[in-house]
Specification:
The structure is a single chain. The chain is mainly alpha-helical. The chain contains 4 helices and 2 strands, in the order E-H-H-H-H-E. Helix 1 crosses helix 3. It is elongated, with a radius of gyration of 18 Å.
Length: 107
């Protein structure tokens, strides 16, 4: 068993730890690319995103990329306001820890 007796503070990453918005970023990207007849699967997205590459960059001009990113970001923001991005159990876990430790979100 791990000894946590020396833990004095808790630091949490935001996305993927406290909320999960990655699917909605993928969906916004997929939806906007589909409007340009570029089809992106989740597997393709993951193959490119994990190493930090773009799945569509080589298919678009510089101006098209910029316009695409603006549209995608608007769609993504809309998803964040309208879709459930909560991770089950996070709220209860934070509530149970809040009286025992100073906590902060780092990203």
């Amino acid at each position: 068993m791990t000894d946590f007796s020396n833990v004095t503070h808790l630091l949490f990453g935001h996305d993927g730890v406290l909320v999960d918005s990655e699917y909605w970023y993928f969906k916004a990207t997929q939806d906007e690319l589909a409007l340009m007849n570029i089809h992106l699967t989740l597997d393709q997205y993951m193959d490119h995103m994990v190493p930090g590459q773009s799945a569509y960059t080589s298919q678009l001009s510089s101006n098209e990329r910029e316009a695409f990113r603006e549209r995608r970001n608007r769609r993504y923001a809309s998803f964040l306001l309208s879709q459930d991005i909560q991770i089950p159990g996070v709220e209860n876990t934070l509530a149970s820890l809040s009286g025992s430790y100073p906590m902060a979100i780092v990203t």
